[in-house]
Amino acid sequence: DALRLQAAAVAPKRTRFDLYELVASLVDHMQPLARPRRIQIRLSPPVDGPYLVSAVVLNVRVAISNLLDNAIKYSYEEKYIDIRISSPGPHLAGANRQGVVQVVIEDVGVG
Predict the structure, then answer these.
(1) Which residues of the chain have pLDDT under 50?
(2) How far is CA 37 from CA 23, 34, 75, 99, in A?
(3) Is the pTM of this model over 0.90?
């Protein structure tokens, strides 16, 4: 029982948050890295949002930060990185009525 309590105390908690707001804050945070290479980071406005998700915020933040960092590193100078967030459609919703949210990060570079 004590081990289970310890595991629960350190286990990351899922919370509900707006994915678009998280990505927008990461874009703002990463702009200084892109600026010296004259790379534009373009976040498309939400079309079918809000994009409320239930996840471990830190895990999502790290994953998207890593993708953006790689896009900046490997994009050609004076190019762009496009980011789109969408909900591909209700047909992807499971039995529990939870849908899918997709984040697309597209760059112009090697690889």
Answers:
(1) 91-97
(2) 21, 6, 9, 37
(3) no
